[in-house]
Amino acid sequence: MEKDLRRGSARVLILAMLAEKPMYGYQIAKELKRRSKGYFAFKEGTLYPALHGLEKDGLLQSEWEVVDKGPSRKYYHLTDDGRKALADSTEEWTTFSQRLLSILGEQHTEPAAS
């Protein structure tokens, strides 16, 4: 179940990172892992298909940036539709988590059935 929850949150997490600034794939993965203290550690097999899907859906655009030292990097940034999708997803995840926590909280406050 934990794996499914992480996979289901990949899109909104990527959008949230890119709302701050354009990033390349490895940078997104590294920042998500750092901020979540290792909880969200996306592998290439999860991250890049999600990025390509978001781009296909028109929520991201990408461009290659040539650097003097090292390989060129493909930077992703949000489109206007991506910003709207992030706002909608944030609202949905907030409602979901509040409802879930309210139910879980009820389990700890109700007397045990005899």
Written account of the structure:
This protein is an alpha+beta fold and 114 residues long. The chain has a single domain (2-106), classed as Arc Repressor Mutant, subunit A (Orthogonal Bundle), CATH 1.10.10.10. Helix content is 64%, strand content 12%. It has four helices and three strands; from the N terminus they run H-E-H-H-E-E-H. It has helices spanning 2-20, 25-35, 44-56, 80-109, and strands spanning 23-24, 60-65, 73-78. A hairpin with a 7-residue loop joins strand 2 and strand 3 (73-78). Helix 1 (2-20) packs across helix 3 (44-56) and helix 1 crosses helix 4 (80-109). The longest helix is centred in the last third of the chain and has 30 residues, at 80-109. The chain is globular and about 55 Å long. The model has no long low-confidence stretch (mean pLDDT 89).
CATH architecture title: Orthogonal Bundle
The main pleated sheet reads as: 3 strands, antiparallel
Helical content, roughly? 55-70%
CATH superfamily: Winged helix-like DNA-binding domain superfamily/Winged helix DNA-binding domain
- Which H/E pattern describes the elements? HEHHEEH
CATH top level assignment:
Mainly Alpha
Find the count of extended strands (DSSP E, 2+ residues).
3
